[in-house]
Amino acid sequence: MASSRERRATAPTSQDVARLAGVSQSTVSYVLTGSRPISEATRERVEDAIAKLGYHPNSGARTLRSRRSGVIGLMVPEADGDDGALMTFVGSIAREARRHGYDILLVTAQEGAEGIRRVVRTGVCEALILMELDRIDERVPPVLESGLPFVTLGKPEEFPQGSVVDLDFEMLGRMVVERAIEEECDRLLLFGDPGRKRARNDVSRFLRGVEDVAQEAELEVVMDGGALAEVPARALRMTLPNQRTAMFGLSGVRQVLFAMAATRALVDDTRLLITLSGADLVDVSPLLAAVPQLDPRRVEISELAVRELVRLLRTDGASPRITLVEPRWIEG
Amino acid sequence: MASSRERRATAPTSQDVARLAGVSQSTVSYVLTGSRPISEATRERVEDAIAKLGYHPNSGARTLRSRRSGVIGLMVPEADGDDGALMTFVGSIAREARRHGYDILLVTAQEGAEGIRRVVRTGVCEALILMELDRIDERVPPVLESGLPFVTLGKPEEFPQGSVVDLDFEMLGRMVVERAIEEECDRLLLFGDPGRKRARNDVSRFLRGVEDVAQEAELEVVMDGGALAEVPARALRMTLPNQRTAMFGLSGVRQVLFAMAATRALVDDTRLLITLSGADLVDVSPLLAAVPQLDPRRVEISELAVRELVRLLRTDGASPRITLVEPRWIEG
DNA sequence: ATGAAAGCGCTAACAT
DNA sequence: ATGTTAGCGCTTTCAT
What we know:
DNA-binding, 17% strand, 332 residues, transcription (chains A, B), 434 Repressor (Amino-terminal Domain), Rossmann fold, 3 domains, LacI family transcriptional regulator (chains A, B), DNA-binding (chains A, B), 42% helix, HTH_LacI (chains A, B), homodimer
């Protein structure tokens, strides 16, 4: 086959823009970065030339020279099965980042500490957002070492060097218990094995909230560690006549719902499901007593995280902040 | 405040490695790129020095010089509510990309054609993976213009310039109808408004498969365009005594399940739910007749997409390919 | 208010 | 088998 035409048109450079605008190359750069005053006339000619050529500054050159890549690394956890919430975070973060002129580069949890070291040392990322950290996490030391600004989604025990944005899980725990009491339940069944997941910071904070309030009320808290499919049956079994069991899980809500339907053991006077989930569950009223509406919170948390990171990037010597977002009920 | 110590340690360069190994800087580069033979002794000294310094090549410099950024742009659709499948794709793509030495940069659908133009012109991405294209999509022209290799997840009508990896939706359509007939159903209710979504290529291919087989069988196909919450009630209403209705949806399966539970209108002899979903639904047997197990397919599709893109990147002048992945049943 | 020029850290052509 | 060197396209200091 003879070559009909060449493959890739090479992108215009600031040199090309300068030539077209009749200015020096550095002037183009100054117009772009705004790091020195430019006369209105010159700026206009440069901007026209930029538009005419469809010029975009070369990212490699810019990064090499300025040490700012315009890229934020996002450390995502392994998606275990069907976690829709995760994509809400990722999508909102990407959108908000673009709004501030940054791109998002994915770093999978699988890459571990070495992955962090890599994106930091190669200079691809100039800041990091960390999702779902363990309480002791191998990926934290390389982040601290790098000195890059970072924001954690999900509050670790102590983290004075980076900012934190998270849902107020302690408050959520208190809210769930209070709700169960209001609904005159005798027992709160926490499914999804929160006991064993206590190592996770969100879980431990949630449980702290639960225990705070449950202790002084007459509410028995049971942590279920078995299969999600059997949660409804177990709830039924542990509920004596004239009693009522509230059910709540930080995860696995859908599976439990399916299971309740499947076993034909639906919610009735003896059981109450308080669930934590997205907007799509609000319609399922007969099954639910109340849903803390978290989907908008997730977007809010994502946006706050990005804005906080941008603040750290722009303000030199800015100190980290902790931001907790309050959960809210949606009545079902 | 007096400065106690400087903030960020500057990363070692190939120059530092060269000095430590007692070779020239270019030799370090050749060891790294493997683009010329190096004696075993030299290679070893260089690699030792690299390890000792924790050296990683500067990404900006490498990109600027080689025009290869090592970054693949991933165009993700807007996550509408709780779409767990999406994150499965994104996660698997990121993992597989890393396995081949590439990073994934997110490009949200929201950015549109201009977003594509931007990542292409700035040179951040050297290849693209496109998810959920419309049949006529404004983002395609800039991709073609760029000349960059790309892979589409989800088959468009015609696309000779880029590769395609997708589920075989036509086969899925045929499978669903055949299954409904096997199960002695008189009617197939397609929920989630496939009629109006026919513009989407996967939907249109699915319907083509459905219609192919349904025509010659005695199966009535009804496309439901109403609220998902009322699908079970409508199915019940349209089913005469001694009849059976199969139900299937490409999306909204969970909502329909919830609705069936909520209205206490469960599956019985008159109705059969054939659903398209992840592994988490397999347990819900009484509700389901059969589940095409798609979660592993999604991982497979993601990995194939990345591998295909890598092939296009590595093999010069490689021609695009279409890869269709077969759906498979899982019995519930 | 603008221009000229240095150089960021690499890759790869051109040496030997 | 290795070294020397010329840039890639920007940002920014030093001129004017």
